[in-house]
Design a protein that fits this description.
single chain; mainly alpha; two-stranded antiparallel sheet; 8 helices; 2 strands; 61% helix; globular
Amino acid sequence: MNYNEYQLATTITDIRPQQGELNIRLVCSVLGLIEELEELDIISMVTEDEKVIFDDIEGVKSEVGDCLYYIASIGIETDITMKELTERPLKPNAGDISIAKLLKKTIRDYPEMILSDLGMPKIYREPLHDYLAWNVQLVLPMYVNIEEAMEYNIKKLLDRKMKNTIKGDGDKR
């Protein structure tokens, strides 16, 4: 499975509304990515020489897959493919960008965009894409093979969709 095939496959299990008073998919995806990156940080440890240590490979693969899901969804909402993120030149300090702040500024400064399917203005979309590329190219591959995580994630989500357990909490549903 390649990056763009994965991104397309994520739309099959996306149950969030496409339109409405607020671009729910973009808001939920940014917040979801923040949550999943925090969970990944909790279940692992990065050493001084940037080696990742963890006990549960399946748990880490699941969390990386969840991060990729939200990155794919943000990409759809802000018009960038996963493949483009893998090829985007990395900017210094892209990992220091606060995506929560970018979302907040979009809602505050450009409500007409977030209240539609337009996503984010370019002034905020570009740093967001830099942050996503930094995670796809540098951070997430430190944990597991990305292709394996994408396939694991889609299989997990399709299984949940079949069992009608997409909504809910917990890794084991």
